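dumping this here so i dont lose it
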């Protein structure tokens, strides 16, 4: 399992490592789990400018890896949210934020399939992203994930 790491430093100096973890499979395309790991303590949320910069890193990665499918599972670590979003779970908030970033940066070149599995506090939010021309492959990856997680 190969991992590519990209370091990102926010405007306020917070260091993140973006990981692209190549999940082994027998298909002709790459399935890569992505994660965003904070490596310094911080007191505030990321600015929109920083969030879009991270989104562009993912977009650029897909441009260079055209047979890639990025998968993302929103984690449940606590985080800072505005008053209007405090009713959302950390996973639901991250999913909402991730969807907004994707929508803003997508010019139609990319396809995203979202899954919500489970109920209540056990709810999980997953995303599968790739080039639009690979929509069938992305949907297949989502179906396999459902079968593994629910089976």
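and the seq i came up w/
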């Amino acid at each position: 399992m190969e991992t590519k790491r990209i370091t990102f430093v926010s405007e306020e100096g917070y260091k993140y490592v973006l990981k692209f973890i190549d999940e082994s499979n027998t298909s002709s395309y790459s399935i890569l789990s992505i994660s965003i790991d904070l490596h310094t303590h911080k007191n505030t949320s990321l600015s929109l400018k920083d969030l879009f910069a991270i989104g562009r890193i993912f977009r650029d990665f897909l441009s260079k890896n055209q047979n890639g499918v990025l998968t993302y599972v929103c984690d449940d670590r606590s985080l800072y949210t505005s008053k209007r979003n405090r009713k959302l779970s950390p996973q639901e908030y991250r999913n909402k934020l991730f969807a907004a970033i994707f929508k803003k940066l997508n010019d139609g070149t990319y396809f995203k399939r979202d899954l919500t599995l489970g109920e209540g506090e056990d709810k999980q939010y997953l995303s599968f992203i790739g080039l639009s021309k690979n929509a069938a492959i992305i949907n297949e990856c989502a179906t396999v994930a459902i079968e593994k997680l629910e089976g």
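The mean pLDDT is 85.
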